[in-house]
Amino acid sequence: MPGKGRGRGRGRNPRWVSNVPETTFFSPAGVSRDDMRIVILTVVEVEALRLTDIEGLTQEEASMEMGVSRRTFWNDLMEARQKIAFALVNGCAIRIDGGSYSIVGEMDDKEMDDQFPGRRRGRGRRRSTQAEE
């Protein structure tokens, strides 16, 4: 299966999302529907943008919020930024749809442990564990 290697290997782990956008379609003014191309952003990509660009979290903090590695978070963030730049430059509409995610707060701890093995509890900034002398 061509493209991004999604046909083999391990599947994508769902990300934690705490804010699903209510508005899911944006279109440029002055472009007819017949001529309009649509760029699809996933809910996960929008959450990555929200955490870094609106909430001001570092990529490390944001990756912990979403329950993924920093590298995976960075990939989601860069994909979102590239799609938005492409849509703005080329006059495309943007639709927010899909993605592998679970909404934070809709699962109890047992369900979270089953869904996200190895997850970090106490999400947010890590505290220093150096022994005090």
For the biggest β-sheet, the strand order reads 2-4-3
Mean pLDDT, all residues: 79
The number of helices is 4
- The radius of gyration is 17 Å
CATH architecture field of the domain at 35-99:
Orthogonal Bundle
Name the helix and strand elements from N-terminus to C-terminus, one letter apiece.
Answer: EEEHHHEEH
The CATH H-level superfamily of the domain at 35-99 is Winged helix-like DNA-binding domain superfamily/Winged helix DNA-binding domain
- Specify the helix fraction band: 25-40%
Q: Largest sheet at a glance?
A: 3 strands, mixed
Q: Globular, elongated, flat, extended or rod-shaped: what is the shape?
A: elongated
Compute the number of strand runs: 5
How much of the sequence lies in strands comes to 5-15%
Structure description:
The C terminus is likely disordered. Helix 1 packs across helix 3 and helix 2 packs across helix 3. This protein has four helices and five strands, in the order E-E-E-H-H-H-E-E-H. It has a domain of about 60 residues: Arc Repressor Mutant, subunit A, CATH 1.10.10. The protein has about 130 residues and is of the alpha/beta class.
